[in-house]
Amino acid sequence: MSLGPLIETYEWRLTIDWMIPEIEIPGDVWLATDQVLQLFESEPQLVDGEAEGRRAGSLTADVRLRAFDSGSWDVQTARPDVAGRIGEIYPDAVELDNW
User: Fold this and answer.
1) Would you tell me which of 26, 38, 48, 54 could form a disulfide with 58, CB atoms 3.0–4.6 Å apart?
2) Who's near 93: CB < 8 A, 6+ residues apart?
């Protein structure tokens, strides 16, 4: 993941609506970042889905990634460091008024 150390200790809950090829994603559980990276090692194309991220042990997600049309992503975060990193990686990124 491009966010590297910012999310190393994170847990993720995945909601996948469409992926090519389909891979088995455990339902409604929180997975460690390394587990998510293992699931995506074969580089499947995520067309429509969402990942909620939270610091391990936290009850509140503070990063949400939403994929749609296989090439566009929305990122929602309360963390300025994550928002800044997104801007560094993707200089064409724009801030949205609504999620």
Assistant:
1) 54
2) 75, 86, 87
CA distance 29 to 6: 21
Core vs surface per residue 27-53: b (16+ CB within 10 A) or e: eeebbebeebeebeeeeeebeebbbbb
DSSP-assigned letters across all residues of 33-77: HHHHHHHTTT--EEEEEEEEEEETT-SS--EEEEEETTTEEEEEE
Measured CA distances, 23 to 10, 40, 65, 70 (Å):
21, 9, 18, 16
Facing residues of 49 across strands? Answer: 16, 67
Full-model pTM = 0.82
